[in-house]
Amino acid sequence: MVFPKQEFNKASVKDANLNKGVLVDLFNKIDKDKLNIHSMVLLKSGSEVFHASAFEYTEDTRDEVYSVSKSFTSIAIGILCDMDLLHLDDIVLYFFKNEVKNYLPEYEKLKVKHLLSMTVGQEFDVFKELTPSDNPFEIFFNQPIAHEPGTKFYYSNIASFILSAIITNITGKSLNDFLNEYLYKKVGIEKPVWNQFENINYGATGLQISTHDMARFGLLLLNDGNWDGEQIVSKEYLSVATKKHIDTPDTEKECEKYGYGYQFWMNSIGDFRCTGYLGQYIFINKEFDLVFVVKAHDEKPLVSLFENFIVTSAKQGWKMCDYSLRDFTRRFKIHSHDLIEEEKENE
Q: What is the pTM of this model?
């Protein structure tokens, strides 16, 4: 495994043992379907095989990655567990003695692991309804619980926000400041901006980060939490966090029907990913040592790009191809111009 210093080590498609023709097919698919992708990075064993950026974007452009934020929140929880400052079976109410005076008794059973796996038991996400005058904790702990915690998946931004608040209550630091000390600096991620409600980072969304820094995060996940010899988050926590804890049969998208871990989605082919609104992804595949990062502004699911092209190219291995991948990354940038301009007009 190769760990980047200032920049990622580069690997040819041949050295990465990937089928270049299938990667060419990937770019042709993006072009044919007019997918509005802002940037992509593919790593094999830590080395960068290719990067591609749209018009006016680079791999170092920092912008909103929506619910990819949740996976960063999960890792912060894991680090606190490793420090023995938090346990997955801890009762959530315990951390809010000062903020919550009235609550529904059902919340006395709610554990940290239920927040992580989106199995709180609520049927409504109040996160978008919060106003600056609200006490989000009083609101959260007075929402009706329709299902026993741990038994029913319901995707909830407020659950991830509560995780962020737990981190702040334990450490006295914002989630972003905590990760800056225990994650970002150690793996070379420039401290991102993270939106917040009062002094609590959203946790669920609001993280603004570059494609290359997402790739660094993905490489950490690929390598079981170890970065060039230093264990940032334990392998034990990651092995639990990135496996399925709950079925997700009621989700609308086919790619979301394979289960959910601790703020990570499961893929149909047995690996996992970080996922955000409008096509933000960090795909991890341990079988072939792959990290594939996508940032986009497109409502079409893009998971098939990874499963049908990136993983397929790894399965097939190196095959001679007359095309130059660099020509296709250049074409990608040129052809993205109209999509980006259309995106601006629709903002």
A: 0.98
